[in-house]
Structure formats: structure tokens, C-alpha cells
Amino acid sequence: ACYDLEVVGWGGRAFADGNDAVDSINGNCRTTPVEVFETRFPWRVEQLAFDVDSGGAGEFRGGLGYSKQMVCLNDLITVSQMTDRHLSKPWGLNGGLEGGCGATLVKKANAETWQTMPEAYGKISSSRYANVDILRGDRVRLTTPGGGGFGDPKQRARESVQRDLREGYISAESAKANYGYTEGQV
Q1: For the whole prediction, is pTM greater than 0.85?
Q2: Where are the beta strands (DSSP E) in the chain?
Q3: Where does 14-114 have alpha helices with state H?
Q4: Nearest to 100 by CA among 109, 92, 112, 111
């Protein structure tokens, strides 16, 4: 049995950016390191990364969510899930923009395309379901939501936008569209 906690981006605050990929700001739950997860459970993690642009734009940016892609190494793993924000985006406050949605996708071993849980297994919800059989070679991609931004994105400090670009938290397209910033601008 495996109980895996997924982490999300928290909303921007009146004084700071939201936390990136956390369970709770003051909580005691942590993400299991990939090396430990793979040693204990029949999954191989193929990718684990922040989702660029998943934090809502704002004077204080929402925290980033992440994506984790895994391949099943067992003949059969029965999974259940209870997550949120697959359909409605985390809202922004005081002019901040919405954060990104979460998603759960599966790509069956011999398939060419990714499908949602309703598409692949006939479930009503993509984020809350029980007893789905994942077979050897099937891939699962979990995407967690980002937090909403706080305040008018055009008020974000230029140095913060530059840092976000440098660190890969936002794309050049988002910097221009949401913050009015173009590369090389001071």
C-alpha cells in the first residue's frame, strides 16, 4: 500500500509570493523523495518538475504546482485518488490572476495519447475516484494546481519578474502578457 501526498502552489499574499509545491504552509507532511518512492513502490518516476506559469500572476505571484509522471512497473496496481482544482482554477485576489488547474492523465502502455480518468476508465470525476487498475507499462501524469496571484501584476517589481524568468517559474510569454515585461528591460 502506498499513500502519496501531492503538493500544490499556495496563493500569493499581501506581502510575499505564494509557496511553491507545498502540502501546507505550517504542516508536517513532506513529499517522499523520488529515490525512496521508487525503492518502496513499483513505480518509476520519469519526470518531476515545477509547472512553468502555474502560479497566478500578481504583484505577489502565486506559488507553482508541479507535474509528476510515473510508469507502472507491476503487473497491476489499483489506485484511488482524492484531489481538487481540476475544473475550477484557484482564484486571485485584489487584481491577481488565477493559478493553473490540476489534472490526472493516463497513457496506457500501447496507446499514443494521454487521456483523463473519465476518458480512460469511464469515471465521473478526473480527481476523485476509486479502484482504477493501472497495468504494467501504463503511465500516469499528476499535475497539481498553482496558487492564485495577489495584487495587480503590473505592480510586480521588475527584479522579481527577472528572477522568475531566470529561475524558470514563468515564461517569456507570461512575462510580457501578464507583467508587461520584455527580455532585456530594466
Answers
A1: yes
A2: 43-50, 66-72, 76-82, 103-107, 115-116, 128-135, 139-143
A3: 34-40
A4: 92
